[in-house]
Amino acid sequence: MATGMERSRTGPPPRRTPERAPGQGADAKREGRTRRRWLMVGLCFFGLTVNYIDRSNLSVALPKMKTALGLGPGAEGVVLAAFFASYAVFQLPAGRAVDRFGERIVNAISVAWWSLFTALTAATHSLGSLIAVRLGLGAGEAGGYPSSAKAVSVWFPTRERAFATSIYDSGARMGTAVALPIVAALVAWLGWRGSFIVSGALGVVWVLVWLVYYRRPREDPQVSEAELEYIEQGGARTLEKEEREEHRHASAVRYRDLFRYRTVLGMMLGFFCLNYVIYFFITWFPTYLVDARHFDLLKLGVFGVLPALIAMPGGWIGGLVSDRLLRSGKSLTTARKIPLVGGMTFSAVIALAVLVPTAAEALALLCLCYASLTFAAASVWSLPADVAPTPAHVASIGGIQNFASNLAGVLGATTTGALVAIAGGSFVPALVLSGVLGLVGAFSYLVIVGRVEPLPIN
User: Fold this and answer.
1) What is the pTM (predicted TM-score) of this model?
2) Residue 270: how many other CB atoms lie within 10 Å
3) For 303, which of 263, 319, 333, 359 is 20 to 30 Å away at the CA?
4) Torsion-angle region of residue 239: left (phi > 0), alpha (psi -120 to 50) or beta?
5) Is domain 34-236 given the CATH code 1.10.260.40 in the classification?
6) CATH fold for the domain made of 255-458
């Protein structure tokens, strides 16, 4: 634990703890441990919920918008792709910015930026202006995940990192699930322009709450000495501690050097495969249910949300399993790779959906697929903090792997469409390819990603 003099350089003055009777130190310290870290990950959860509501707003409002703006099917595809293009590209600078300037300020700027462009969507009157605001939205939202990964890396010990990650990551599923009813109600009540203004305002509210409450552990006066010791001694990635005790200095590894590590390349490939399958659910899943399984709109509305809802506890279970393995004495490599490899392997059941005769069986397999992906995702987003050569590279590695994963979003949507067209409307080739990529992702995490530990500083 840091001394009082060391704490004064990085945060508020040291806080004195009450004297304890002999033999009661451990119990008193345990009783005095605050749980401030769970508030911080809760803020990240709601931030990503708003993130996914704002990015999904267009999909829900588009049927009304295309009439007003005169958009054809080709234009709709360009507008939807514009977001993913800028979102993927800006992952790289966003991750670097978080490591340089801190997650508190970068996340606040990111959410304020994307909230502004969400609200500006209400003022669009042409295809060009709509593409411009979608590009701006994608650039702003790029900071969400790297900032959340950084926050968990400094607030949570290694033994709790995967579950904490699964909590904020489930904000994506929550935002996707609630966007449909919330935005649909706003469109019916205020029109499509009003829906963008209201959803943009949600982000502004979140920014205010974030700035009021979020601090790093040593800067937060509400954190007890016991919680601070629990976090830092448990393996949280703090720059001051690692420079002092392990001589891991940020300047020892340049940003471009991160691409030379085999583990980082394996993380990029594995996350690409995971997100390729996930983007099927975000883009083509409703069309599959209607065209291949003959769902009407009522069935689509009732059953179409099931995979996303089931995926949320799937992610939580994945985080709990990884943390439990670590607490039971398994190595960090084993604790992370079992959920990663197991989840990616089971996601391949998406290919079996083309073989079963009934829609119910296909839907069950797709639910299992999505839950398997989120089961792995908790460890996917734990890896940047686990393997970063220094704490100053956590968000950078998070941005790098998320850049690769969102290239899958761009390529997956177009590839699926092309395969369905070539197959005369059949989804068989597209789903089989998704299943194969699930297995490729499992191989990448098992073989290409090496030992899960801080990467060596050359």
Assistant:
1) 0.84
2) 28
3) 319
4) alpha
5) no
6) Growth Hormone; Chain: A; (1.20.1250)
